[in-house]
Design goal:
9 strands; globular; single chain; two-stranded antiparallel ribbon; alpha/beta; disordered C terminus; 12 helices; 281 residues
Length: 281
């Protein structure tokens, strides 16, 4: 069985003499903040499952339910980019792998993620890490291009970050990055807008709000996302798959890539049946 070892992860990521200087007390504090013991209990309970089976068992472990709508919008044999909002920071991605892995098979889905998530070993075969810098960045770009050129389905959270509280009191994604648009057009893939309905606890949004007000650039609130996972026992979520947007329609629109990314984002929040769309916290 694989376990999350924050001490090892930090030392490997920082590397060299700097990694050896990390105070043990700080690592212990971080282990508590990310609920390392609880997350390892999940890995123990779901071992040796991987991929969508791991995701199903994780949902069962927490007593979660997920209603799925709109799968009839998908056409057999088509290569899609599934572009989803990112409300939760853990259980949304796990829920989408659970659904799409069951539909297409784990070997036919690729989830583009932050390279830190490769430490979740049961999902390594589904994840494709994105690292923008140095040699790893070049290798990652080659792997991404290969995935888009292949026959499998691509899943992505174009916002990159988890949804935040908006000035009008709604909770929604920040601006979507444009790269998925460029890759979808290059690889002739239609884009499926996906709306995942769920919320973190209010304290997550309050922390993010005050962090911005204080001018702190580091996303402190991200550290608390594992706590949101552990606090989600018994929750109910819904996911809505909208009608695919043909890549040639986007190409012929004469809009820029950032404008197209914003267009797809808006379609996600306008999916019929997703009720309150940008849910109020």
């Amino acid at each position: 069985m694989k376990r999350i070892d924050l001490h090892r992860i930090l030392k490997e990521r920082i590397g060299g003499w700097k990694g050896r200087l990390i105070p043990g007390a700080l690592i212990t504090l971080l282990e508590n903040l990310v609920h390392q013991d609880e997350l390892n209990a999940v890995l123990e309970a779901t071992d040796p499952s991987t991929g969508s089976e791991f995701c199903r068992r994780t949902y069962d472990y927490f007593g979660l339910t997920l209603d799925v709508y709109g799968l009839d919008n998908l056409e057999a044999g088509k290569r899609y980019v599934f572009a989803s909002n990112h409300p939760l920071g853990g259980l949304d991605g796990i829920g989408l792998i659970k659904v799409l892995g069951s539909l297409y098979g784990d070997g036919n889905i690729t989830f583009l993620v932050n390279d830190m998530l490769m430490n979740v070993e049961p999902l390594r075969d589904v994840f494709l890490p994105i690292n923008k810098y140095g040699r790893q960045g070049r290798q990652g770009a080659i792997a991404v291009n290969k995935a888009y050129a292949g026959d499998g389905q691509i899943l992505i959270f174009p916002a990159g970050l988890v949804s935040r509280l908006q000035p009008d009191g709604t909770v929604a994604d920040l601006a979507w990055q444009k790269s998925f648009i460029a890759k979808a057009l290059e690889s002739h893939r239609d884009i499926v807008p996906v709306y995942f309905q769920g919320l973190n606890r209010p304290r997550f949004y309050r922390l993010a709000k005050w962090r911005r007000k204080l001018g702190v650039r580091f996303n402190i609130e991200q550290i608390f996302l594992p706590a949101e996972v552990c606090a989600s026992k018994g929750k109910h979520f819904s996911v809505f798959f909208g009608k695919p947007i043909p890549y040639d329609t986007l190409r012929e629109s004469n809009l820029t890539y950032p404008q197209l990314a914003d267009l797809v984002r808006k379609k996600v929040y306008d999916i019929p049946g997703s009720s309150s769309s940008e849910s109020r916290n």
